[in-house]
Amino acid sequence: MGALMGNFSCPNPNCSKNFKWKKNLAYHLKYQCEKPPRYKCPYCEYASKWRKDVERHVQTMHPLEDVKVIEIGKAKEEIKFEWYIYPVALEKKTSPASVKYPCLNPNCRSTYANQYRLRFHMKHECGKPPRYLCVYCNYKSVYKHDVQKHARRKHPNGDNAVIELYNTTGKHRSGNVGKPVYYQY
Question: Where is the C2H2-type domain (predicted)?
Answer without folding.
Answer: 8-37
